[in-house]
Amino acid sequence: MTTQPAGQPYEYHRRTLVEPDWTRFPGWRDVTESQWQSAQWQRVNCVKNVKQLRAVMGELLDESFYTDLETDQRRLATMSMLIPPQMLNTMVPNQAPTTETFYADPIRRYMLPVATDRHLDWPSHPHATRDSLHEHDMWVAEGLTHRYPTKVLAELLSTCPQYCGHCTRMDLVGNSTPTVDKLKLTLKPVDRYDAHLAYLKAHPGVRDVVVSGGDVANVPWKQLEAYLMGLLSVPTVRDIRLATKALMGLPQHWLQPDVVEGLHRVAITAQRRGVNLAVHTHVNHVNSLTPLVARAAQTLLEVGVRDVRNQGVLMRGVNATTADLLDLCFGLQGEAGILPYYFYMCDMIPNAEHWRVPVWHAQQLQHDLMGYLPGYATPRIVCDVPFVGKRWVHMIAEYDREHGISYWTKNYRTSIEQHDDEALSKLYAYYDPIDTLPESGQDWWRKQEAAA
């Protein structure tokens, strides 16, 4: 008797990148290739509301979907709607969408959430907060978060070319929604930037600056170039990372001649001064990768950016399976020239429980990724623990699986803990989504809520 080989848990098949046919959408039937490749056309034709989505979709979707979407926007959404055509075009990429296929699409699930996606019994964890990572608490100047000893996060602005439903900075980024009245940056950009540079010059222990927002693709290029050249004038700054989801959501921006030429000037200056300049983007599913995205990434590398890396977010219904993550990583590394770097567990913000995964699930995914990708392109799955920072998911000190509480330690003080003698010795808690717990654990949380 002969037996068949058992096969591998994951089988690799090369998937070349394809730009989906945007004319399958009734509202874009007459859009030309030159229009599609225009950053200005993409920005003007972003979908910002249900009326505009209807205009693109025509009769493809049932009325029930729009009712579901309107309910979410009115009652639950923490982010307003803003989707570039490039990104909408990667939803149901191989055919004209139907209501069923649009509901099931992984990119739709995080870019265009609807009320029935959410877990209405536990839409938010009891410990969820608007600024779950306490970045605003750690501002040392407006928009400058000093959490790690040698690194700062510079939020240059509070807008993006696209708004993701799971945004960790939902307290600041984007327009206010009926659910969330957003914070506002109050200084003029030039004053904000000057305050950042003054802090860096006064704190030579900071060597690494993540330039973000919002999304740096929304900063007028001359302003961004001036800011970056200012950073390069600080001799103690050795790493600069530009954070832009627009590399995937609006690659046309990064292919504009003035942006390409300006970034080349910045990259050459960085090389001459021995500073590592990288671009970090945010791709969550392989369907988001198209030839335009690959061309934009390659252009960044050609003008002298040292690395283009991806920081995705692990989300149920989007990418929280081994096959989804490996498909994405092979597409990033092998087809688009983007290095898989991190997958963050979705943060504990309001109305995000349906996306979040428990720590044990993230640990299993990290285990299952190993051995398929080159070592340098095997991403780390990390938990961004409040008051701690990024920790690999296997670095827990204790784990109460029944109640979904993991405990973590850290080895440095944040900027608000300089006089806290216990900061390095205590345990910090993180919480699994309640619906993933055993019934006894869910009952325990119900009792905690009732007693609160």
UniProtKB/TrEMBL annotation:
<keyword id="KW-0479">Metal-binding</keyword>
<protein>
    <submittedName>
        <fullName>L-lysine 2,3-aminomutase</fullName>
    </submittedName>
</protein>
<keyword id="KW-0411">Iron-sulfur</keyword>
<keyword id="KW-0408">Iron</keyword>
<dbReference type="InterPro" id="IPR013785">
    <property type="entry name" value="Aldolase_TIM"/>
</dbReference>
<dbReference type="GO" id="GO:0051539">
    <property type="term" value="F:4 iron, 4 sulfur cluster binding"/>
</dbReference>
<dbReference type="InterPro" id="IPR003739">
    <property type="entry name" value="Lys_aminomutase/Glu_NH3_mut"/>
</dbReference>
<dbReference type="InterPro" id="IPR058240">
    <property type="entry name" value="rSAM_sf"/>
</dbReference>
<keyword id="KW-0004">4Fe-4S</keyword>
